[in-house]
């Protein structure tokens, strides 16, 4: 009888061990939480900040442009749920110097408390054929899109480990899942975020820290409009309406709170087929002269 009981207990423990990676963590409440958003002055970053504020969070917005930060702060504050909430702005290029990023994150935590959630949204893009992209553009894209996220994450991880609590979001792109013509620099930087997030999740999961990587499609943001301007030798074409930032961020946030690792791009009907995407249009326009 005792042997049967021990065998049953052993099988039960093995079952729990096998099942444990599939068990979701306890959802994180954002009421009173401190959320840091890099690239928070516009686009998806600002939209995420607004969604977090609606759930009672305290916000630190980090971006380079002081005027855009000030404008974003006023817009985010309009969605306060209570008068105790605070939005603070810090002007900083997160891709330049880790020491400065670390100092700024320490300053933010001294005012609003330890960081509960970090959202890495800072990013830039250039669309052109590989040989038309300058070496300095490759370097700059990797610095902003990849190293900017690395530096910000390195600055908050120690405190999160001490508290055994935290959520970190990396905003990749659908170009971080599939390489696209004309996006050799951009896709490489977004693929790097994917590898970073997958490896880092293995390291920090024992500390109750969960990593989420998002793969948004082309979204109606100021950055996307700049991306269109950078497409060289491309003929103007009619375009379908892109998903809004607020729509994208509201879908993401619940998955982040529940510790889900993956946020897929969007619903199928919101995503324009690749055959009519900017990358495909650019490919046709660049290759056509060489074939004729």
Question: Which band does the percent of strand residues land in?
Answer: 5-15%
**Could you spell the SSE succession in H and E letters?**
HEHEHEHEHEHEHHEH
User: How many domains?
Assistant: 1
Give the CATH topology: Rossmann fold
Q: Radius of gyration from the CA trace?
A: 21 Å
Stretches with pLDDT under 50, minimum 5 residues: 232-241, 267-277, 286-292
Structure explained in plain terms:
- With 292 residues, the protein is an alpha/beta fold.
- The N and C termini lie far apart (84 Å).
- Strand 2 (58-63), helix 3 (66-77) and strand 3 form a beta-alpha-beta unit.
- It has nine helices and seven strands.
- Helix 2 (43-54) packs parallel to helix 3 and helix 4 (98-112) packs parallel to helix 5.
- 39% of the residues are buried.
- The chain has one domain: NAD(P)-binding Rossmann-like Domain (Rossmann fold), CATH 3.40.50.
- Helix content is 49%, strand content 12%.
- A seven-stranded parallel β-sheet has the order 3-2-1-4-5-6-7, sandwiched between helices.
Question: Secondary-structure map with pairings?
Answer:
Blueprint: H1 2-19, E1 34-38, H2 43-54, E2 58-63, H3 66-77, E3 87-91, H4 98-112, E4 117-120, H5 135-163, E5 166-171, H6 184-204, E6 209-214, H7 222-229, H8 245-257, E7 262-263, H9 278-291
Parallel strand pairs: 1-2, 1-4, 2-3, 4-5, 5-6, 6-7
